[in-house]
């Protein structure tokens, strides 16, 4: 979303004969490059006539009118109800949600879609103000393309307690992943450091010098082309399960970013990785009681699993 800043000034005598882009830089504080863009977009007028070139010369006393679009802050939380987000649990300390695919947890540069914090704001939830402005109350994250259960803190005390619990790895995070092939062994632990991919900044990879990352998995179902795994995360690195399974040559079905077979993905009707946060367990930050919350498979993942089960 953008707003438009309208500015209008007479050309002073000191800028007589000056190029319009140079004059705009001096009068309005925009760069000459930005001035050229505004001219090309038809947003600059002299005495009511739209100008076509940045090299046009100015006469003193002429009125220079400029429209400057103001980009919204990409980190601003925009309150809006997001279809598909379900409230699993809500009390004075925490709110537990079931996040659908296609929703980011919080705003970030380059993301223009819906967010969890935007939904909570739109639905009238007051969440903790701890943490960076765009991710206040957030103690964990799920990828945009990953669905499932997650917790957000409403009180400052809950934020402090749960942030520490995630840091100390005392939170039980359980995922189900449908991966290609059959991992060998059928159950095991992947202890391999993860860092940003050297060739693509949107990806991550197992690499020397990366951050310590530990993933435990066990096979729940083994089918002809794929296996359903239960995965427990000891650490919480970005894309951790996807990166570790890809490193084992058993990427999540549908995860084309990390080497999944596009033909199989199409056969299963997948447009994202088959990965779902099914359970989240922790000591409640106020009562100290152990609590556990669950999320069932969304329709697209359930359908894909049914297809895999039927392939003989």
Automatic annotation (TrEMBL):
A GO MF label: rRNA pseudouridine synthase activity
SUPFAM superfamilies the UniProt entry points to: Alpha-L RNA-binding motif, Pseudouridine synthase
Keyword RNA-binding: yes
Domain of life: Bacteria
Residue ranges constituting the RNA-binding S4 domain according to the UniProt record: 18-86
Catalytic activities: a uridine in RNA = a pseudouridine in RNA
EC number, as in UniProt: 5.4.99.-
Record keywords: Isomerase, RNA-binding
Class in the EC hierarchy, top level: isomerase
GO process annotations (BP): enzyme-directed rRNA pseudouridine synthesis
Name of one Pfam family that matches: S4
Keyword flag Transport: no
Positions annotated as active site in the UniProt record: 143
CDD domains associated with the record: PseudoU_synth_RluA_like, S4
Family assignment from sequence similarity: Belongs to the pseudouridine synthase RluA family.
NCBIfam families hit by this protein: rluA_subfam (TIGR00005)
Annotated function: Responsible for synthesis of pseudouridine from uracil.
Identification of the protein by name: Pseudouridine synthase
């Amino acid at each position: 979303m953008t707003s438009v800043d309208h500015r209008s000034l007479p050309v002073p005598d000191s800028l007589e004969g000056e190029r319009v882009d140079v004059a705009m830089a001096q009068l309005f504080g925009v760069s000459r490059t930005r001035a050229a863009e505004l001219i090309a977009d038809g947003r600059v007028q002299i005495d009511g006539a739209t100008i076509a070139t940045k090299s046009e010369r100015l006469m003193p006393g002429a009125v220079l009118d400029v429209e400057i679009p103001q980009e919204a802050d990409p980190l601003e939380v925009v309150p809006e109800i997001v279809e598909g987000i379900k409230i699993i649990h809500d009390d004075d300390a925490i709110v537990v949600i079931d996040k659908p695919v296609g929703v980011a947890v919080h705003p970030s540069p380059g993301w223009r879609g819906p967010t969890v914090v935007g939904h909570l704001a739109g639905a009238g939830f007051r969440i903790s103000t701890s943490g960076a402005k765009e991710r206040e109350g957030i103690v964990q994250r799920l990828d945009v393309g990953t669905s499932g259960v997650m917790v957000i803190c409403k009180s400052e005390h809950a934020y402090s307690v749960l942030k520490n619990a995630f840091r100390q790895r005392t939170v039980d995070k359980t995922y189900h992943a449908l991966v290609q092939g059959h991992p060998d062994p059928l159950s095991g632990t992947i202890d391999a450091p993860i860092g940003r991919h050297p060739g693509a900044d949107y990806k991550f990879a197992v690499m020397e010098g990366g951050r310590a990352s530990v993933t435990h998995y066990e096979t729940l179902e083994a089918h002809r082309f794929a296996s359903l795994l239960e995965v427990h995360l000891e650490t919480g690195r970005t894309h951790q399960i996807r990166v570790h399974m890809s490193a084992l040559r058993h990427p999540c079905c549908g995860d084309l970013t990390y080497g999944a077979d596009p033909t199989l993905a199409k056969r299963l009707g997948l447009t994202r990785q088959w990965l779902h946060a099914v359970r989240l367990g922790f000591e409640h930050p106020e009562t100290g009681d152990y609590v556990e919350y669950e999320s069932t498979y969304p329709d697209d993942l359930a359908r894909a699993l049914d297809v895999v089960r039927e392939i003989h």
